[in-house]
Amino acid sequence: MYGRVVRRVEDPRFLTGRSRYVEDLVPERALRAVFVRSILAHARVIDLDVADAAAMPGVVAVFRARDLTIAAAPGEADPFERQAFASDVVRFVGEPLALVVADTRARAQDAAETVVPGLEPLPVVLDPRAAADPGSPLLFPDAGSNVADAFEEAWDEDVLAGSDVVARVTVRHQRVAPAPLETEAVLAEPGGDGSLTVWASTQVPFSVRDQICERLGLEEDRVRVVAPDVGGGFGAKQEAFPGYVAIAAAAVRLGAPVAWVPSRSESMVSLTHGRAQVHEVELGATRDGRLVGLRVDIVSDMGAYPIATYLADTARSMLSGVYRIPRIASRGRSVVTTTPPVGPYRGAGRPEATLSIERAVDVLAAELDMDPVELRRRNLVPNYRFPFTTAVGSTYDVGDYERALDEALRLAGVKQRRREQAERRAAGDRRALGIGVAAYVERTGSARKEFASVEIEADGSATARIGTSSSGQGHETAFAQIVSGVLGIEVARIRVVHSDTAAVERGEGTFASRSLQIGGSSLFEAADEVLERARQLASAFLEASPEDIVPTDGGLGVAGSPASAIAWSDLSAASDGGSLSASARRFQQELTFPFGAHVAIVEVDVDTGEVHLLEHVAVDDCGRVLNPMIVEGQVHGGLGQGIAQALFEEVVFDEHGTPVTSTLATYLFPAASELPSFTTLRIETPTPLNPLGAKGIGESATIGSTPAIANAAVDALAHLGVRHLDLPLSPERVLRAIEEGGAF
User: Fold this and answer.
1) pLDDT at 576 over 90
2) Which of 54, 273, 551, 575 to pair with 392, CA 20 to 30 A apart?
């Protein structure tokens, strides 16, 4: 089962145009929906006249907040609750005010543009640190504050006591847009029997179903949600968006299929953003480089609606990184601002923690006049200390941090690069060489239960059902590989069913790098139970002990006697209608903690400020590897996004809160030609927490790459007096830092 390169069974349909995304499923008779969105970041809604829009050719209906019955979320009243439509106040540019439904998208768009809302401007709040101040304009006056959630841990303690040197750095984690290839599309179609089928580009179809049922008062068994092929999610599609509920409500009201497929520019404000935190970091150490304590103040920008306040706490849980830091104090505040909401994005809190601690370690090394690699070595958690519980209470399962660091340094040829750097500096080279190192550990496996089942069909094939949902990760291949490894049935004869609430009993979805370790482990146990039942059946046919029955080519046989075998189809016929099926919902007791080390080599043109990534080495652990090719794909994708965050990506607003990066012409990201060939290495430390020994890999490379590049750029310019650089590393920002460094 393990270590086999099995080509992705999904890829033929993707490569030949046979894949089916939401837009491909929209029937010709479907109505098209377009949202009327606010052009102001903060305003009181005085008037919303939709009469002209309703009278436009082809328009079937125009819905405002009062026109659709959408219930509030169950539970206690939440002063920060987000509705499908703004009715009294808008709080970000792009917030929906109304929904136009017409016979074509063009006509719906034309009608939407005739709606000119009467808006009375209110003060905007863009800086999250200013938003936390008591005197800041309030987005939700009934809440009494812009602080939606807060925590303090050991904040009143002097955790830096005993430090000879304290490094202080403000690490700004810029806001980024997930920008998946497919936007957050949805199609809702009511049935004549009162049912509703919804096709949604989502990572969590069961959550979308539950949200629609709760908000529209529908019975769970009457609503089916399907996530067909999904063109990327990166965490941003794990929310049950209000837009999905609004489209479902419109379809039910009109008794007709309604589709909403947002444009790219619309998606840039309607889909959640990521990161958007500011960390004030203080790291103390003795003169010989032993870490004494860490103090971090986290301000997390939630945008207009605090739908993911857990992000600050997730960052808190990983502040220690790979190091033994005996005392850690932290404070976190999640605040609302007049900007689009912020949600989880690849890594979701762990990249923020890693960038902060890795930048602080490099700043501390400079102040100690110590090699940053040596400082790391002196403080890494050693192998004999696992499981290791950090000062913030996270228990790392198993790791080999020094080996990852050693391998990354070896592959990057860091000693030779240091010599080259010294030679360049001595020669006054205007293209400065920088070497950046980052070590990381991350947490994976949240929502520690997942449904899975396996059934042997009459023809001897197998059907696996799983509660996770693929958005490009290769689930159909990986899960078929697990079943094949247990039962001996070839991968091509195993059908994997997922992402359909009518075809799968239940499911949590895909996020937090959980699919293989949680879903895969449940599937492994279900397949193993089927194997045990089949052994009992086969033993009677083959007149052998069940313990001697083993999988063979196409069935089960007696160990050491190839001629004694029975086919899976015969076992299915003998199983009396269904005994060769089993389900599981295994619970993983704890989270797992993959780790790794990255090295980035950059050149910085000191005359133009351009940062060019020459080489990137990634050494990553994800426990025991099932399919090396899928792991490699996840690493490459993660590297692309982490590098893009370091060098290119940032959502920017003007002083009025209007986004100025709402298209791919203004929101920068790299083409393949702007990325180097990656050098990657996998190391395996199987976790004891699940039967596969698996940890996550989907987010690891994103977490390790960004700080390595940030450290490399600062290293390149250290001789010019540059101590820190905010991301992304734009030429303007780099040139300003060089000028402020004072060396030129």
Assistant:
1) no
2) 273
Q: Is residue 128 part of a domain?
A: no
Question: CA-to-CA distance for 558 and 538, rounded, in angstroms?
Answer: 9
Q: Are residues 29 and 100 in the same domain?
A: yes
Neighbours of 382 (CB within 10 A): 12
Residues 723 and 610 in one domain: yes
Q: For residue 176, tell me if it sits in a domain.
A: no
What is the full DSSP assignment across 426-455?
Answer: HHT-SEEEEEEEEEEE--B--S-B--EEEE
How far apart (Å, rounded) are the C-alpha atoms in residues 508 and 449? 8
Where do we find the tokens 């790392």?
396
Token readout for 268 is 């840039």
CA distances from 185 to 247, 271, 475, 598 (A): 10, 11, 21, 36
Q: What is the pTM of this model?
A: 0.97
Tokens of 604: 């910085």
User: What's the pLDDT tens digit per position in 33-71?
Assistant: 999 999 999 999 999 999 999 999 999 999 999 999 999
Q: Which pLDDT tens digit goes with each residue over 427-441?
A: 999 999 999 999 999
- Asked if the model's pLDDT at residue 744 lies above 50, the reply is no
What CA dihedral angle connects 414, 420, 424 and 430, to 10 degrees? -60
Q: What are phi and psi of 456, to 5 degrees?
A: -85, 125
- Do 108 and 253 lie in one domain? The reply is yes
Only one residue has tokens 């009278």, namely: 55
- DSSP H/E element including 524: helix 521-542
Cα–Cα distance measured from residue 206 to residue 244, given in angstroms and rounded to the nearest whole number: 13
pLDDT tens, residue by residue, 202-222: 999 999 999 999 999 999 999
How many CA within 13 A on the CB side of residue 39? 7
Q: Which string of DSSP letters, residue by residue, matches 147-178?
A: EEEEEEESTTS-TTTT-SEEEEEEEEEEEE--
Angstrom CA distances, 187 to 198, 228, 246, stand at 6, 11, 11
> What is the C-alpha to C-alpha distance for residues 22 and 189, in angstroms, rounded to an integer?
12
